[in-house]
Design goal:
The protein folds into two domains: about 325 residues, Glycosyl hydrolase domain, family 43 (Tachylectin-2, Chain A, 5 Propeller), CATH 2.115.10.20; about 160 residues, Jelly Rolls, CATH 2.60.120. The chain is about 0% helix and about 40% strand. The chain contains one helix and 31 strands. The strands form seven sheets. Strands 24, 25, 26, 27, 28, 29, 30 and 31 form an eight-stranded antiparallel sheet that branches. The protein starts with 9 loop residues before the first strand and ends in a 17-residue tail after the last strand. The site of beta-L-arabinofuranose has 12 residues, from strand 3 and strand 15.
């Protein structure tokens, strides 16, 4: 039975009854927008909303009136749909310390076309609310511009309100404040805005994705460019999701980085992202890369929002950890950020994520999660992820990092994968869940293997197991073979590639199970290093 780590109760409450706190820094209290539907939420852990009723994405925390808010998007993709279906923004408002788990949830906070008459419905991407020097709140929101003739129709609109929870009006009703053609031409996708109000009240906007990051100072009107934008190219592995903040005299830029590879400090698989950061002595840089502050999460995208609240620092990010979550069904988590002030500039320590996906510790025969893994094509091409083989997950429409695969322009005749355990184990079966985009007999693409077999290491070399059931090679299904028990530290699956007689197809698998005669409690997602291909040690 699955044992939930997180228990959420939804209790309808009157928005007008929500409490407001006051701090020394900001003594004003903001009345919640009475037009909003609101629910009280008790979150036992991360993610905050974990039951899968509402998926929350792209968090942007805001501290105002002594309260901790998190603006989020909403993922509405059906299972198996690999697209950002994001019709509206939501808001979470903490009662007290955000780690206490008492939240008010405003599920239908705002839709793009509610406020931007020039925007299409849908595509309510990662937005941020900041409090301007005049005390008003400004929402920077990437939306799709209706009737855009730009190559990419994403554009950033700005809305304004007297309260963090609205109501909102367009601060620039003429249209977006940034697009591919306004106010100066650019050729990037104009999303993921982040805004800093500096101590001297000057305002800075950064935005960008797909490895392109731009920054510009804004006029006091919060919508007009002051000077030409700068292109930031010094933040190693920058992919998207910038978040600018200032601590003491240092400017920090956190972002989703995807510099990938077996030796990368960020991510093994290019579709995944770490949260990396850089620092600068002034708000428009130059920026210096400093390192990683959050390892990749369970969703391929990662997205940071970092604020100080009552003397502590917090990071909000999203994961795939909610019930039936996924790469396009993400959910917001909040954790504390601790600092190392002994170095210059001060360094945010690596965040230790709390909570996570429900995990069932009941013993199971499949002991793959205890194994280290390697493959004949290691280092595996960065679009794939070797450890997907024993992460216990099968996806209805997998992305490349949800599987191990071997595709290359010249696929070889044979491939293999190896599991290695620290101590000898006794095994009597194995199962592979193959993925492919070509039928059996193909010599191109990824196809089910012509044949495969299981071997074990007998201390000197590889020996075939004695199979008691036939091998099969169905795509999108478990292919299980039973064999006479073997006691070994290493198991190998060897694949003879599908061929049309001229060339060879690649092979790919989402899961590889190894069944022991002694069931064991599984381990959460493997973080073990690579196995040795020869298993001699
Ligand atoms: O939610 C859509 C996109 O996913 C955001 O714009 C990115 O930052 C990533 O989180």
């Amino acid at each position: 039975m699955m044992k939930p780590l997180s228990l959420i109760s939804f209790l309808p409450v009157l928005a007008a009854c929500a409490t407001t706190a006051q701090t020394v820094a900001d003594t004003k209290s903001y009345t919640p927008n009475p037009a909003l539907e609101a629910h009280a939420v008790k979150a036992a852990s991360n993610p905050i909303l974990s039951d899968g009723a509402d998926y929350t994405t792209d968090p942007a925390p805001l501290v105002a009136g002594g309260k901790f808010y998190v603006l989020t998007g909403r993922d509405k993709a059906e299972p198996g749909v690999n697209d950002f279906i994001m019709p509206e923004w939501q808001m979470l408002e903490a009662s007290g310390d955000p780690m206490r788990g008492d939240w008010t949830h405003y599920p239908h906070f705002l839709k793009p076309d509610d406020v931007f008459k020039w925007a299409t419905p849908g595509r309510a991407y990662a937005a941020q609310i900041v409090q301007g020097p005049n005390g008003k709140f400004y929402l920077y929101a990437p939306v799709m511009q209706a009737g855009s003739t730009n190559k990419d129709g994403f554009a950033i609109g700005v809305a304004v309100s007297d309260s963090p929870t609205g109501p909102w009006v367009d601060a620039h009703p003429e249209g977006p404040v940034v697009s591919q053609s306004y106010p100066v031409a650019n050729n990037i996708q104009n999303i993921d805005p982040t805004v800093l109000i500096d101590d001297d009240k000057r305002v800075y906007l950064y935005w960008g994705t797909f490895g392109r990051l731009k920054g510009v100072e804004l006029e006091a009107d919060m919508v007009t460019f002051k000077g030409a934008p700068v292109d930031v190219t010094s933040l190693t592995g920058f992919f998207e999701a910038p978040w600018i903040f200032k601590r003491k005299d240092t400017y920090y830029m956190a972002y989703a980085g995807n510099r990938a590879g077996p030796e990368s400090d960020c991510t093994e698989a290019v579709y995944y992202a770490c949260i990396a950061y850089g620092t600068a002595k002034s708000p428009l840089g130059p920026w210096t890369y400093r390192g990683v502050m959050l390892d990749p999460v369970s969703s391929t995208t990662s997205h940071p929002g970092i604020v100080e609240y009552k003397g502590k620092w917090y990071i909000a990010y999203h994961t795939a950890d909610a019930n039936n979550g996924g790469h396009f069904r993400r959910s917001v988590a909040v954790d504390e950020v601790l600092w190392d002030d002994s170095v210059s500039p001060p360094r945010p320590k690596k965040v230790v994520p709390t909570g996570g996906a429900p995990f069932d510790p009941a013993p199971v025969a499949n002991i793959a999660s205890h194994a280290r893994v390697t493959a004949s094509n290691a280092p595996v091409p960065v679009q794939y992820w070797l450890r997907a083989l024993n992460d216990g997950k099968v996806h209805p429409a997998p992305l490349p990092p949800d599987m191990w695969g071997t595709w290359s322009p010249n696929n070889p005749k044979q491939q293999w994968i190896v599991y290695q355990w620290d101590q000898p184990v006794t095994l009597n079966g194995s199962s592979l869940y193959f993925w492919g985009d070509q039928p059996a007999g193909s010599g191109i693409g990824v196809a089910p293997p012509k044949d495969w077999r299981v071997e074990y290491w007998d201390g000197k070399g590889w020996k075939a197991v004695s199979a008691t059931t036939p091998y099969s090679s169905q795509l999108d299904a478990y292919n299980r073979v039973e064999f006479t028990p073997v006691t070994t530290r290493c198991l190998r699956a060897v694949f003879d590639a599908s061929t049309d007689g001229k060339t060879f197809a690649a092979v790919a698998a989402q899961e590889w199970q190894a069944f022991s005669t002694t069931p064991k409690a599984p381990l959460p997602q493997s973080v073990k290093g690579a196995a040795k291909a020869n298993c001699a040690n």
